[in-house]
């Protein structure tokens, strides 16, 4: 197929969002939203950097790239609505595989009521998928990393280290038991939009999505808020499937593995019961893992409590261009 035939083949026949005036098929998309704040983000996934054919099929590539962007929306406490795809297509990806990529995106987009409204298609030497996502949140209610305060509770959703363990199982020959759960956590993460939006009644909640490991994400909160974050290693929740690995692997993956696309956050102690209510309402596992302090000489730093000792937790998750 040429570019225009391909665009026609992936165009939605029906749109979900009522505010959409014009989607795919013109020079630009048009939507109308007059009573909420607009939130937008972009992520780029590159073949053999973020994914490879050896560990993912085309459907999972599409599913995961959009899931990562939806998780950014969850971290802002907003509802995702639209997405645009720019894709660089090499010759070694077939038409069938390209349609499977878009099917993966369509599958998760449908779960969250999202519409594909545009993008760009070009040829190149390696597959590159760049997603721009647009969402809406009540005015002045976006959740920011800079809102953590002294004596806040630090919490996380779900279990951590799963995606890194799943990737390990996919790429290495090893003696560990195969785990469809861990592999699916790597290939098909579940963004926590429902939980994040269920926190609307709480005046102040800090959220950050766990894309690069909580070592990185907690540090981003500490730096943006000008506070000190303490995390108790033993309280970080892990799935039973992770227990087959060594203690060293478990600690490495749950602190620095990333790509679980869970949420780490902080909230005032008085509001913790409301967080628990949101967790029950949305069927989300939520655990306290630490606390926040305002300590001028330490602010911007994260400390790890482990076996009775407190040490500085390095910002050591995955970092591009490092």
Report a brief summary of the structure:
This protein is an alpha+beta fold and 322 residues long. The chain has 9 helices and 13 strands. It has helices at 3-10, 58-75, 95-111, 162-171, 180-187, 193-197, 214-225, 247-256, 272-282, and strands spanning 20-22, 30-31, 36-46, 79-89, 115-123, 128-138, 153-157, 205-209, 228-232, 263-267, 286-293, 302-306, 309-312.
State the name of the first-level CATH class of the largest domain. Answer: Alpha Beta
CATH superfamily of the largest domain: PurM-like C-terminal domain
Q: What would CATH call the architecture of the largest domain? A: Alpha-Beta Complex
Give, in order, the helices and strands.
Answer: HEEEHEHEEEHHHEHEHEHEEE
Strand order of the largest sheet: 8-10-7-11-9-12-13
Number of domains: 2
The assigned structural class equals alpha+beta
User: Given the structure, what is the number of helices?
Assistant: 9
Indicate the radius of gyration in whole angstroms: 20 Å
């Amino acid at each position: 197929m040429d570019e225009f035939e391909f665009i026609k083949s992936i165009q939605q026949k029906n749109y979900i969002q009522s505010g959409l005036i014009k989607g795919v098929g013109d020079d630009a998309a048009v939507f109308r939203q007059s009573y909420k704040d607009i939130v937008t983000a972009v992520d780029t996934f590159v073949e053999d950097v973020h994914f490879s054919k050896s560990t993912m099929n085309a459907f999972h590539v599409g599913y995961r790239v959009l899931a990562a962007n939806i998780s950014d929306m969850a971290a802002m406490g907003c509802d995702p609505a639209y997405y645009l795809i720019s894709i660089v297509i090499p010759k070694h990806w077939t038409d069938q595989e390209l349609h499977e990529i878009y099917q993966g995106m369509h599958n998760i987009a449908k779960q969250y009521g999202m519409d594909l409204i545009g993008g760009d298609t070009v040829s190149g030497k390696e597959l590159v998928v760049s997603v721009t996502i647009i969402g809406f949140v009540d005015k002045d209610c976006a959740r920011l990393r800079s809102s953590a305060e002294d004596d806040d509770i630090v919490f996380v959703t779900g279990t951590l280290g799963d995606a890194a363990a799943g990737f390990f199982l996919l790429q290495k020959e090893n003696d560990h038991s195969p785990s469809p759960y861990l592999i699916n956590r790597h290939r098909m993460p579940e963004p926590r939009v429902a939980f994040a939006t269920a926190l609307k009644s709480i005046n102040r909640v800090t959220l950050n999505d766990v894309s690069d490991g909580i070592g990185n994400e907690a540090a981003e909160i500490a730096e943006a808020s000008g506070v000190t974050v303490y995390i108790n290693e033993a309280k970080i929740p892990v799935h039973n499937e992770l227990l087959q690995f060594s203690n060293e692997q478990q600690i490495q993956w749950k602190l620095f593995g990333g790509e679980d696309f869970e949420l780490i956050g902080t909230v005032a102690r008085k509001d913790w019961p409301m967080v628990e209510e949101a967790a029950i309402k949305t069927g989300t596992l939520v655990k306290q893992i630490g606390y926040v302090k305002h300590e001028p000489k330490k602010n911007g730093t994260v400390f790890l409590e482990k076996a009775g000792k407190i040490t500085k937790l390095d910002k050591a998750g995955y970092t591009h261009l490092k």
